[in-house]
Amino acid sequence: MEKDEIILAIETSCDETAVAIIKNGTEMLANIVASQIESHKRFGGVVPEVASRHHVEQVTVVIEEALVTAGLTMEEITAIAVTEGPGLVGALLIGVNAAKALAFAHDLPLVPVHHIAGHIYANRLVTEMHFPLLALVVSGGHTELVYMKEHGSFEVIGETRDDAAGEAYDKVARTLNMPYPGGPHIDRLAQAGQPSIKLPRAWLEPDSYDFSFSGLKSAVINTVHNAAQRGEELAPEDLAASFQASVVEVLVEKTARAARAYDVKQVLVAGGVAANQGLRSALEARFQNEEVPLVIPPLSLCTDNAAMIGAAGSIAYRKGTRADWALNGVPGLDLEAQ
Amino acid sequence: MKALAIDTSNLVMGLAVVDGDTVIGDYTTNLKKNHSIRVMPAIHDLLKEMNMKPNQLDRIVVAKGPGSYTGVRIGVTIAKTLAWTLHKELVGVSSLEVLAQNGKYFPGFVCPLFDARRTQWYTGLYGKKEDGTFGVVKEDALVLRETWLEQLKALQQPVLFLGNDLPLHQEAIAEALGSQAVFGALADHNPRPTELAALGMMREPEDVHHFVPSYLQLAEAEANWLKAQNK
Ligand SMILES: [Zn+2]
């Protein structure tokens, strides 16, 4: 019997200190996430310096919790995987240096992982991947359609030209005076409202898989403003539902179109905004009529976590990807160069 | 007891390995280069030169700040993780105290300083304590240069100033303190990792999980938030 491959993975690219232990690329033995959201709430967004301070306070505690949960010791670990980027540089550095220290202390291979590759590979913790595939990545910092012809190969066929979808949610939430983080609030409100307010859809050029959300964000702000000038009050539920409908329609349509054009065997959804109920149900409804299977991971694997880094790290490890002791956090790391 | 000392808290990057009463190796650079890229390779090379495996260390000593927020965190993260995962002791030492050691035989007070912008310093006052040993006599703090210099003037004793940021402030110091001020020479301004190791050998170990850097000030967003709360 072959020896199990056990990867300890660390993710600190934003405001979650996360450590996971993944067996043979697909089995989660531990998935610990220490969220800082309560701390950042008072600032209305993630403050990089505060995030870095929390990471350094938490990092060994979370590593220990992961090992205890998995019932393992460091002697049983095969390799250390860590998010190299993209993300907040000061935050990335804590994970990277903790990972280097662990790998050095125990003479283990060190595997650098791209954060978005991680989000996509969260799906492999749910079901096996079938190539070629298309991944829709939607998060606070990213909105991308990624084509994968095989494991570890990433081609970005469409991306946002301005704001990421999650960013648009947060900005609109701020306009509507909702607490941080805004995405989940809009999602909840939208469930109770009707998409009755006319808002634009940014389709861009007919053959483009790119996205644009800054115009929509401005349209929402103008609509609120104009209504106020007329002395009218818009129901926040309807505004949220209308905004969400516009975002979701473009995301769903472009994904479905790309899936056909590229003749893929699977469509994966990834990233924090994939936790959005409106997006999930619209995708599910749309793909019911398509032949290609749609995979959306459970909420806990959509938001930032280290299990996804371990899953992507397993593939990178098997492909022989290694970092040396000079590994650094790279805030603008390129996915296609992986 | 074998100890590894790590200082990445300011521009100077320093490492030292001590075995009992002997310093068996050290490495220092004073370069504007990335600590995150350079420190782990340097630790690897130094231990290799010593023919030493990480698990042969008994103690990790780290300069805990003040200094560059990011720099301090790199050293503290590595030190915490090594100590925790190898089940070794962890000791943190003030980065200012390490620098102050370069003046430990000076007959008077020693003022190590790191520039903190807007004519502020991270500093403390070191000298002969009541028990006759050299140590801190005025706790490390973030101070306004002019206020601090007034306090030093009132001591009416010579003060030795140390630190690579001195050129920014030497004129102001000389003006405020006149002949009371003494300035370190070429080789006195880099914090020495061997001194960090020596101090670390004498201290009680810390609780690894709860060990945090000594920033000496809140994150700016936090300070602003507190100010807004008190309005
Ligand atoms: Zn993410």
UniProtKB/TrEMBL annotation, chain A:
User: Where along the chain is Fe cation bound?
Assistant: 115, 119, 304
List, in alphabetical order, the GO biological process terms annotated in this UniProt record. Answer: tRNA threonylcarbamoyladenosine modification
On whether Electron transport is a keyword of this UniProt record, the answer is no
Sites where the protein binds substrate: 137-141, 170, 183, 187, 276
What keywords tag this UniProt record?
A: Acyltransferase, Cytoplasm, Iron, Metal-binding, Transferase, tRNA processing
Where, subcellularly, is it found? Cytoplasm
Gene3D superfamilies for this protein: 3.30.420.40
* Predominant place of localization: cytoplasm
Q: What are the GO cellular component annotations? A: cytoplasm
- Any Pfam family from its record, for instance, is TsaD
Q: What is its EC number?
A: 2.3.1.234
Q: Which domain of life is it from?
A: Bacteria
Q: Which family does this protein fall into? A: Belongs to the KAE1 / TsaD family.
What is this protein's function per UniProt? Required for the formation of a threonylcarbamoyl group on adenosine at position 37 (t(6)A37) in tRNAs that read codons beginning with adenine. Is involved in the transfer of the threonylcarbamoyl moiety of threonylcarbamoyl-AMP (TC-AMP) to the N6 group of A37, together with TsaE and TsaB. TsaD likely plays a direct catalytic role in this reaction.
Query: What name is this protein filed under?
Result: tRNA N6-adenosine threonylcarbamoyltransferase
Can you name the source organism?
Answer: Fictibacillus macauensis ZFHKF-1
TrEMBL record, chain B:
Annotated Gcp-like domain residues: 32-225
GO molecular function annotation: peptidase activity
Query: What CDD domains is this protein classified in?
Result: ASKHA_NBD_TsaB
Q: Its GO CC terms?
A: cytosol
Q: Which domain of life is it from?
A: Bacteria
Q: Which GO terms describe its biological process?
A: proteolysis; tRNA threonylcarbamoyladenosine modification
Is Protease tagged as a keyword?
A: yes
Sorted alphabetically, which PANTHER family does this protein's record hold?
A: TRNA N6-ADENOSINE THREONYLCARBAMOYLTRANSFERASE, TRNA THREONYLCARBAMOYLADENOSINE BIOSYNTHESIS PROTEIN TSAB
**Protein name (database record):** Imetal-dependent protease putative molecular chaperone-like protein
The species is Fictibacillus macauensis ZFHKF-1
